[in-house]
Design goal:
Radius of gyration: 26 Å
Order of helices and strands: HEHEHEHEEHEHEHEHEEHHEH
Oligomer: single chain
CATH class of the largest domain: Alpha Beta
Strand content: 15-25%
Length: 342
């Protein structure tokens, strides 16, 4: 076909038009990808809602408000609104987070209950904790402490175990803030390792647990240091051992339980999770913001002073591994005890 034939000229024109359209499409895709990446890198571009799975005034609420106060400085002056969604062992907040759009505007202050073992404890919950969330950043570990009523003749962990063995006919009682809470699981693990028996008495919160000890309704408990610290300092309860591997600075002179039971360690962790399906770029950007918050000196000082907390931080992958490890640790005990939350 001659080069100047009409059909040849038409084919050439169509090929040229296709090339132009292809270039434009590729450029638009590249620009869209760049914009999406830029949006993730600039996260957040609007206020963020942080769901807290427990009521106001507790350790979770205190931590969330410390983080929210420091959020604008690390997040381009955007704000974080704390929303308490207590109830059902934290699964009300868990379900709301799991159903939220994975765009980084709704996050949750996660812990082991609603974000790890809830499916073992509550029949028919609306989500699977191991698939419904995106781990973003581990924030802190809260140490826990064995406390007793001051009238109890136990000044060390060994004293407590000896007394429990001697009181087989009239067992000691331990208070806990609800079925399946880490502090109850810690107590049950402790009883198994020491071959002792106590009767569990459930309450509705850590504050009620401490009240029960002060009133003499129960003999001992394992609350977080942050919950128990004011009562320990006032002499209303006695601290006999911390369950961290290292001593807690806020409780000078209180030994570790590991000194009596080598390797025994329990803490309460909190971190940031989002709905499943968040993009890797978005997760990485949010992780950078929360790590920056937890490195701020005033944040470190506040969580250490008010909660005796150990600042954690780290990658989303490290946080995911922590959650899986804790689920693997506690699930067999939950099944052995047949625990079910009401």
């Amino acid at each position: 076909m001659p080069p100047n034939h009409p059909l040849h000229r038409r084919s050439a024109a169509l090929l040229g038009l296709a090339a132009v359209l292809g270039c434009r499409r590729a450029a638009a895709q590249g620009q869209g990808q760049g914009q999406g990446q830029g949006q993730a890198e600039r996260w957040p571009e609007r206020p963020v809602r942080l769901l807290v799975p427990y009521g106001a005034g507790g350790a979770s609420d205190t931590l969330s408000r410390i983080v929210a106060q420091a959020f604008p400085q690390a997040a381009g002056d955007q704000t974080m609104v704390v929303e308490n969604r207590g109830g059902a062992g934290g699964t009300i907040a868990g379900a709301a987070t799991a159903q939220a759009r994975p765009d980084g505007t709704t996050l949750m202050l996660g812990d082991l209950g609603p974000n790890g073992i809830a499916q073992e404890l509550i029949r028919g919950i609306a989500y699977d904790p191991l698939t419904a969330f995106t781990p973003i950043c581990h924030l802190v570990n809260l140490p826990v402490v064995i406390v007793v009523n001051p009238a109890l003749r136990a000044r060390t962990a060994a004293d407590l175990f000896d007394l429990a063995r001697a009181r087989a006919a009239t067992p000691l009682t331990y208070a806990h803030p609800g079925i399946g809470y880490v502090t109850q699981l810690a107590q049950e693990q402790l009883l198994r390792q020491t071959g002792t028996r106590m009767v569990a008495v459930p309450y509705r919160s850590g504050a009620e647990v401490l009240r029960s000890l002060i009133a003499g309704e129960c003999d001992c408990a394992i609350p977080t240091v942050s919950t128990a610290l004011p009562f320990i300092r006032d002499g209303k309860v006695r601290a006999i051992a911390v369950c961290s591997l290292a001593p807690v600075a806020q409780l000078p002179g209180v030994p570790t339980l590991a000194a009596t039971l080598p390797g025994f360690e329990v803490s309460v962790w909190h971190g940031i999770v989002g709905p499943a399906g968040m993009s890797p770029d978005l997760v990485a950007a949010a992780n950078r913001v929360f790590n920056a918050i937890m490195r701020r000196p005033e944040v470190v000082a506040k969580v250490e002073a008010t909660q005796a907390a150990q600042v954690a931080g780290g990658t989303p992958e490290q946080f995911a591994a922590l959650i899986k490890a804790d689920v693997a640790r506690w699930t067999p005990l939950i099944r052995e005890l047949g625990l079910r939350a009401e």
